[in-house]
Amino acid sequence: MTEPELLTEVPASLKRLAKQVVRGFYGIEHALALDVLIRNPCVREEDMLELLKFDRKQLRSVLNTLKADKFVKCRMRVETAPDGKTTRHNYYFINYRLLVNVVKYKLDHMRRRIETDERDSTNRASFRCPCCMNTFTDLEANQLFDPMT
User: Fold this and answer.
1) Which residues form the HTH TFE/IIEalpha-type domain (predicted)?
2) CB-based burial of residue 92 (10 Å sphere; 0-12 exposed, 13-18 middle, 19+ buried)?
3) How confident is the model at residue 130 (pLDDT cuts 50, 70, 90)?
4) Pairing of strands 73-80, 127-128
5) Across all residues in the chain, what is the average pLDDT?
6) Which of 7, 80, 92, 132 has the most CB atoms less than 10 A away?
7) At residue 123, does pLDDT exceed 80?
8) 63 phi and psi, to 5 degrees?
9) Which pLDDT belongs to residue 80?
10) Taking the model in full, what pTM does it have?
11) Phi/psi at 88 (nearest 5 deg)?
């Protein structure tokens, strides 16, 4: 029995999807942070600070926003220095399978919202009879016109 072939390189279409979604819905700081993660599969927080020249607080805010929306994953690793001290480092990476699922979910959510808004706008009372003050929907507008009067 053969093992399934694992992809070791991320397809360009997934990288492009991640870039376009973040550039379309987030600020420039988020797009810059994600660009670093797209170029490098796994990046330590200190390395991102050096590359982006952000404050630590600003970078954490940006990464926490992306992490909350499930675009970025974080893994904490405890490393031991040569002098025996232990330090904790945060490593950030993109889980592309989760990213695709999140984008699909958000697009479906937007589609449903547009459909319900469209349905509500057609059912909304939009015509009023000046004589009897009754309201009529778009579909009942033919009741307003009486050829006899």
Assistant:
1) 14-104
2) buried
3) confident
4) unpaired
5) 86
6) 92
7) no
8) -65, -35
9) 85
10) 0.72
11) -105, 130
User: 18, 6, 37: which is closest to 103 by C-alpha?
Assistant: 18
Helix, strand, or coil (residue 1): coil
Q: Which tokens in the block code for residue 9?
A: 């390189």
Q: Under 8 Å CB-to-CB from 55, ≥6 apart: which residues?
A: none
- Counting every residue written for the chain, the total comes to 149
DSSP 31-95: HHHHHHHHHSSEEEHHHHHHHH---HHHHHHHHHHHHHTTS-EEEEEEEE-TTS-EEEEEEEE--
Cα–Cα distance list, 56 to 22, 91, 109 (Å): 21, 14, 33
Query: Which of 27, 22, 37, 52 is closest to 92 using CA atoms?
Result: 37
Average pLDDT of 110-127?
Answer: 82
86 bridge partner residues: 80
What per-residue confidence (pLDDT) applies to 118? 87
d(CA 140, CA 123): 10
* Cα angle 33-35-38, degrees, rounded to a multiple of 5: 115
DSSP letter at 9 equals S
- The position carrying tokens 């973040």 is 22
Which amino acid is it at 56? R
